[in-house]
Amino acid sequence: TASYLYAIEKAQSLNAYVAVTADQALDMAEKSDERLAKGEGGALEGVPLGIKDLFCTKGVHSQAASHILDGFKPEYESTVTQNLWNDGAVMLGKLNMDEFAMGSSNETSYYGPVINPWRAEGGNKDLVPGGSSGGSASAVAGWLCAGATATDTGGSIRQPAAFTGTVGIKPTYGRCSRWGVVAFASSLDQAGPIARTVEDCAHLMTSMAGFDPKDSTSVDLAVPDFAAAVERGVKGLTIGVPKEYRVEGMPEEIEKLWHQGLEWLKAEGATIKDISLPHTKYALPAYYIVAPAEASSNLARYDGVKYGLRVPGKDITDMYEQTRAEGFGREVQRRVLIGTYALSAGYYDAYYLRAQKVRTLIKKDFEDVFNDGVDAILTPATPSAAFGVADQDMATDPIKMYLNDIFTVTVNMAGLPGIAVPAGKDGQGLPLGLQLIGKPFDEETLFAAGRVIE
Ligand code: GLN
Q: What is the pTM of this model?
């Protein structure tokens, strides 16, 4: 814990942490030592972790990287973080992220962009770590924590993992409790870990997961020992390769890496099968209706009364307006506008309801291939390697940024588990990731196949 705190201090230029809880961390570590000395201790005893700012941590900075939650220190602890502390893990601090988890580059944070510890060979340009869990990915890749919590609504665990050469898994919807995690789009949000290896992720997820009566969408299923699945291998498994993921303009090196990944799995005894997921092309537009719609509803609670920032106005309505105008960043305001429009009377059927129907078709595509004998699906994690800070201008061209999510959003729309594993590097020496998509609640196969690729 002390050495990670030292590393955090030295690496402030990465801007990965928004709050460091040094005293509390040392105290937790000391208690871990005492338990270990007595021969006690949990599965993660003394393991120092970074926590995404989206998780409520009792009495500690929890602002979803937003100005509107200024000074908010919750009275309660999220179930996922409580599970980690119950197993002996140590909290180093809270990690930077895109504001309310809306973004793919960590540039929408109120605290400014996070820097990716990776640089192109010979280059000195700062690169983004991806988003929205950019602080989590950068801190893990930069050795500023042993592992981190993250969340994934449309790719926010897997895309940053791919951009930083780390491993990230989005569990099946319902596997980890959403209680105490600031809501973005409730029907898509899932918590999961980012760590340096598949095995580390498996250990973290075993602790984070589990039924929680406080989350009505939490599923009452026993949590397997995910670490036990890591060395299981892929012999006899059928891996699907969806033709719709060969998108136009994808760099050749990503295409090659995808092929390489299939060869690795084949060499270990898997069978490769060409498959089709015909509704893939509708996933991104449908996601960018469903996610903002749910966000606009979830964000209605930030009104200057209950939490954080209050900007005084001449009456209560004016106070609401001033607070929300100043407290929310541009991207969050854009989502609230899109979402409110999509949900409004007269447009609801044309946009939100239609997007939900498309969602059902996407889910059915996956059900069909899984019913047809496919055990897991291999795709690239992202259509490019990490790009430069300020390279993709969200203010003028948000659609370009949204295209980063093209391979990841389908998984959230269908509620499936997906893992991103580092698989190679591009011509500039930057990490590239592959994604494995699994059947509902079959994260074990993803850990086993991910281990073969990493
Ligand atoms: N980049 C996507 C978005 O901005 C996904 C974010 C996420 O998964 N939290 O909505």
A: 0.97
